[in-house]
Amino acid sequence: MTDLNTDAMKTFPPSRKEGLRRLNAFTTKAGRAYAAGRNTDPGPDADQAVSKLSPYIRHRLILEQEVIETVLETHSLRGSEKYIQEVMWRTYFKGWLEHRPTVWDSYKDGMRAALDNCETDETLRGEYEAAISGQTGIPYFDSWVNELIQYGYLHNHTRMWFASIWIFTLDLPWELGADFFLRHLLDGDPASNTCSWRWVGGLHTKGKTYLARPSNIERFTNGRFSPGGELAPEAPPLREDAEHMQRPLPVSDTLDTTGPIGLLLHEEDMDGGHISDRFNITSCAGLLCTDARSPLTVPDDVKTFARSAMQDALERHGGGPITQTPDAVLEWAAQNKLSTVALPYAPTGPTGDRLQAVRKKLGDNGVHTAALIRDYDSASWPYADRGFFKLKKKMPRIIDAFSKASLF
Q: Which among 189, 204, 220 is the end of a domain?
């Protein structure tokens, strides 16, 4: 039985209706107010300039282009550029990781190696356990740990401070910090999370790191925290031996429409409208992969958000079962006599990993599968092969292709 009465669930009710309500309430603030206040974290119980839409966008309960269109109904692109850039950063990281999927494999290998080291290195294990239980003795860091565990969320600026302190002050493996975030964040996104931690550590943009500074923390927490000399004064970039070569971007599969078609939603896309609006769908199901985020335990709040959001999504498609294994998906397909299962394309990450097994299981049993990429992603990802500036320059062209509103 799921508990929707925790602080995390009460703060982020898991439904599309709530995502749309928040979007509409935030729209007027997406211009000057957001630009002026977006870096300030006044605390979890105070009004913030940020939208707090990320758990809804991450699962595509609401869509990126939907958010952009709504904002542009009130603001010009120039007036809301800072906020729209923030939406596009998520798009950029997903596209960047699609160009270099071995970065995800490297992260998983590094995280498992770090966990193994914790088993044999008593000092490392103690420092790691102190960090994830909020007992480092650094009061603001420990406060953020408890806030993350309680709410499943941290302000974006705070996430940067947190990662910097984890890497450069606590001197802990970055992969363990990224895993801690991915397990506890309701908006835990494999691409954004992995690439952001790499960016802080100097791996994403080679040699460029982010250093948490006492004056910055004091200023942008409105004086709630006043760090002393406990923070690392320097942030030497991390190094890696692996070379991550680019691969061609994926393309949509061809969908066989000669027989009954089922729609399989998953945590990367709980909307599926780009499929159900085009094809005659006879049955729908949802695939949850929350437990695949980490070999460690994923908190109940994160599982509850994903399951409840999936239930909400399935109800909008006429209902259907929630599955978690290839065998369960095959059982759904067999019961509904499906010849084809269509699914939104899942970018690099744990959902994509599990879907490989699902698609093999279905294929081995005579069920065709087709993964279809959204036009928004196809239009954006080609410009995400290098730094964000390349995608930023193309924002007007990308937005113009999808927005109903005037850009200027």
A: 220
Same-domain check for residues 71 and 28: yes
**Do 397 and 334 share a structural domain?**
no
* DSSP conformation class of 287: E
- Report the alpha-carbon distance of residue 6 to residue 150 in Å, rounded: 8
Closest to 31 in 3D by CA, of 89, 77, 87? 77
Residue 177 CA: distances (Å) to CA of 145, 185, 204, 213? 11, 12, 16, 19
- Determine contact, residues 194/309, Cβ cutoff 8 Å: no
Sheet holding 368-372, edge to edge: 322-323, 281-287, 261-266, 340-344, 368-372
If asked whether residues 337 and 311 sit together in one domain, one would say yes
pLDDT at 407: 38
CATH number at 398 reads: 1.25.40
314: part of which helix (H) or strand (E)? helix 300-316
Q: CA geometry: angle at 236 spanning 230 and 239, to 5°?
A: 135
pLDDT tens, residue by residue, 154-206: 999 999 999 999 999 999 999 999 999 999 999 999 999 999 999 999 999 99
The angle, 0 to 180 degrees and rounded to 10, between the axes of the packed helices 174-184 and 102-120 is 100
Q: How far apart are CA 343 and CA 256, in angstroms?
A: 13
Q: Is 87 helix (H, G, I), strand (E, B) or coil?
A: helix
Q: Are residues 133 and 171 in the same domain?
A: yes
**Whether residue 94 is found in the same domain as residue 123:** no
Which residue range forms the structural domain that includes residue 275?
261-372
